[in-house]
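Appendix B: complex inputs.
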Amino acid sequence: MNALFYLLAAITIGGGLASVLLKHLVHCALATTVAFAGLALLFLQLDAQFAGFAQILVYIGAVAILIVFAILLTRGADLPKDGVFSRTWFVGLVIAAGIFAVLAWAVLESVRALPQHNAVPAVTVRDIGNALVGRYVLPLEIVALLLTAATIGAVIVAMHEKERPKP
Amino acid sequence: MATSPLFTHFDQIFILLRNWLVGFLPAALRPAAGVVLGVITIVCLFPGLFALTTVFERKGLGRIQNRLGPNRVGPFGFFQPVADGIKSLTKEDIVPFSANAVVHFLAPLSLVVAVFMEFAVLPMGRNMVLVDLNAGLLFFFSMSASTELSVFMAGWSSRNKYSLLGAMRAVAQMISYEVVLLLSSVSVVMIAGSLSLPKIVAAQDSYTGIFPHWYIFTPWGLAGFVMYAIAATAETNRSPFDLPEGESELVAGYHTEYSGFKFALFFLGEYLAMFAISGLGTTLFLGGWSAPFSFLTFVPSWIWFFSKVMLSIFVFIWMRGTLPRLRQDQLMNFAWKFVLPFTLLNLFVTALWRFMGEGWMRWVVCTVILVAAYVLMGRLSMRNEHFGPRRYRYAE
Amino acid sequence: MTTPLAGYLLVAALLFAIGIAGALVRRNAILVLIGIELMLNAANLNLIAFWRYGPHPELLTGMMFAIFSIAVAAAEAAVGLGLVISIHRHTNTTDLDKMNRMKG
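Resulting structure:
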């Protein structure tokens, strides 16, 4: 379904470009959400249903809202006086273009060697569950620990400091 | 009697109708046409139910508050939604001057689209689900999470501090209770063994004697259902959790600056979310489309599904008319400090139930653990409240 | 005709480059975090594309990697945004060009 792929790729890349080029921060956050949605649809086109729905649930339902809350709590809605692009923007652009050039060259050079098995994998949620508590149980437990540490850490970092009594 | 051909025809009447209509098309177009017919049915049926529910709500609230509801338009006021619809569609569409026009326009649209998608995975009768996804429950919760972003978009784009405040409160409340909603559904998934909603209903569709095997009739199921109901009320911003849109608090919360058709879209989105969450609650805990007693299985399955959903809506309306509103910090405290730990305990009790094997022992153990935990946590969280006789202060 | 794997890899590479550009070119600290999220998403797309077109999709390696990556990215976004909020509370700015001294 080539036309569908081009449409979804255009939505994703368009959302990504808008999120780094727009002036107003909340518009950038909403453009990022469009990019996330485009990516979720690309995952669904790749027959990765669980990953696609998890992408919507986690990224659009949680990370996008987190970004928006942070923008509002740090008064990001006011436009800065010196413009939105940093002083060293040209170097950043050159680096990004260089990285894209290297990656694209690598992909296009190895087009013949890339695997292309077109059979649709029959993956059910039950298989994912079995894999999670079977082969991948160690990463699962480590991710649980990581999420707990991240939650506690984020709360402590962002908490108001208690007023210390002056001596 | 339950397997007679007449019953099967009446039970599957919508499926037969769809197959007959689709049979006119060539074979290549049939699956797509079937899905399109299903989508058209959902898009026409649920807003119709929404119109019916608005008049039920106003009359029901009226009777609870010892007054008649609307009774001018049509017999006993039942054509009121027609009048409401005409009013909404013909009102002037006002967009504030400094509002962000694009985001202001997209917010109600994205809300209604996300909520309509939720109906795609609900099994409304035997074989009557639009799409039988393997990860159906996960899809439902993803769509439910997308509605939070539309609420924020609505509140922020209006350039109005009351809207923004209402939107922030609504989003914080929805995120907190989303966790509770997910965890109380996980216990059902553990026992049914699948994330696919038709399979969850099929797991509840058996009877011992005349009593059904619905999950609400088990100790962990009852606790899970109560917490699911609390979380569903908070997710859809209904009373007693409706501070974000409380009329006496914030004008109208995040939909203050919307008028005419867009306000009607927000209203539609909220009620449809209520239907969808009630539909999911009946699928997970109340047995979906299965009959309450084994001698009642001759009644078609879709009648049972919609009766249970309408019963849940009636309970929502009843709660709105009866209970006072909770303050924002009371509501968040309640979520994080009481409901969430209780939900985690419920997960543990579900695991106990699953691995203890059949018999009366598991009933006793699970019930005792849940009741003891409820009493203990209740006492712990209320130990600083002292309820004495009421003191009156008069203005001097 | 199904899309070749190279198509997905090019989209992922482009999104990655856009993410890096966003993180390096803009002033605001929150946009750096948005850029990082875009980069992580591009890597996830790469993983899922290789899982789908690779020789053994029933092993679920790519999908598992992507799911864990989503979880870790969410945690890292939370901590990063907490840091940005904390810095804003301290210096009353989120402009990265102004945060060029260690003295606090």
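The two ends of chain A are 72 Å apart (CA to CA).
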